[in-house]
Amino acid sequence: MSISFWTDALISDLGRRGADHLAELSSTLLDILLPPTCLLCGDGIERGDLCIDCEVSLCGSWPALVVPCQFCGMPRSKLPVPPFDQPCGGCPAKPYPFKSVTPMGIYQGAVREAVIATKRAAHGALASSLGVRLGKLIQRTDFVDQIDCVTFVPTHRWRRMIRGGPSGAQRMAISVGKVIKVPIIESLTTTRWVAKQSLLADEKRELNVRGAFRIKRSYAWQRSLNLRDQHILLVDDVLTTGATAKESTSVLMQAGAASVRLAVIARAVKR
Ligand SMILES: [Zn+2]
Ligand SMILES: [Zn+2]
Asked: Of the candidates 166, 158, 251, 244, which has an alpha carbon nearest to the alpha carbon of residue 198?
């Protein structure tokens, strides 16, 4: 091999190592100037994005010996061992249209605080961080290999403008898709303004979202996205009555999806 080959290789290696050192130095300087803080409580942390206390509170909201029902997400006791492939006592009389629901936690304490914080655009990083944790949970399920794509419940564009960025659910879905390595698609959009579900009584929520969503069309040809035979993972922040997830699922199924599974950060539990 010629001397110039080795010279070029040496210069290239020095350049790469120089860039690596520069990136490391910038990161260290940033840590000194802006010490990392927990995305939820703001306490100083050494690494990661949440402090140990918040991490434990977020991941430990399911009491021992309790698991979520795969059909409605409500807590069900592990004892005596129930038939997990059957609906629980809390399942609605008319089954949800989604095939299963995977809630990361119960909508209380730190989980509730975190979900409420992600409603503000300033907490986009927290929404992404929660999405990573939800993605890791999905990664451990027995259906992860069947998922073709990840999508999220839609938000009206005015609400996104008021918020000043993507919705929390969208950021969560992007993180989930990255963790389980499947495409993230913006499949749904709104047909009209939708009042905030959290401000309405349970019985008014279904009416509030009825007919409010449709499949998104491509900008160029105005053709609806082709979802035929797709196994879709739908992501939302919280499951309360299920009205939004049900309406979203119905639209996806009418568009030809083979199945829709729901993944949420939190399951609201009536006391
Ligand atoms: Zn914290
Ligand atoms: Zn159930």
From this structure: 244
